[in-house]
Design goal:
alpha+beta, Alpha-D-Glucose-1,6-Bisphosphate, Chain A, domain 4, five-stranded antiparallel sheet, 53% helix, disordered C terminus
Length: 196
């Protein structure tokens, strides 16, 4: 899970429907921020809205949690045609600020004991004293590093699962094992508009 900080996680989801229909469903579930249009995984992750941006055939989907989404991954991809129907292909990635900030923070925490060992400190002349100070710093640095790793893993796990569920339900709404109401709601609205 930590790999997503340095490299993107690829996704490819097959669909038996044509690209135009898949795009229509995707626009439908991202055009309304009401909670009823969110998938169960999105609700459990605390997401309040999906935002879709399209540019030259590229799709960018972002998630929001109470107005803050800087530390959430985003999906960047396309809907491509295939022989049986289509497929959604792309990758989940963090923005560059999140990657740089998290990488710098991890490096600073991990290198703190080394700085205490080799950096000249006024009043600390003996190398044995520096070793003792570095040992004292090793425990809190290890705790901070471990907490940071756990926050990244568990903090990203739910949003990534929500992205997978969203795209799976968009690609194959009838085959969704979750029986997501947001897909059925979008289909019902399209059906009602045709009858009117």
């Amino acid at each position: 899970m930590l790999n997503i900080l340095l490299q993107s996680e690829s996704l490819r989801i097959e669909s038996s429907d044509p690209p135009a229909l898949v795009l229509e469903r995707l626009r439908g579930v991202t055009s309304d921020w009401r909670e009823s249009r969110l998938t169960p995984a999105a609700r459990s992750a605390g997401l309040i809205e999906w935002k879709l941006r399209e540019h030259d055939g590229t799709l960018v989907i972002r998630a929001r949690i109470s107005g803050r989404n800087g530390f959430l991954p985003r999906f960047v991809g396309t809907v491509e045609a295939s022989a049986p129907g289509s497929f959604i292909i792309g990758e989940l990635r963090f923005n560059w600020f999140t990657r740089v900030f998290t990488t710098v923070w991890f490096c600073a925490v991990a290198s703190a004991p080394l700085f205490a060992l080799f950096e000249p400190i006024p009043g600390v002349a003996w190398f044995s004293e520096r070793i003792l100070m570095a040992a004292f710093m090793l425990v809190p640095a290890a705790v901070l590093f471990t907490v940071g790793v756990l926050l990244v893993i568990y903090g990203s796990n739910s949003p990534i699962s929500a992205f997978r569920e969203l795209l799976t339900n968009v690609a194959n709404p009838l085959d969704s094992s979750h029986g997501d109401s947001s897909m059925r709601g979008a289909s019902d609205e399209r059906g009602t508009s045709r009858l009117v």
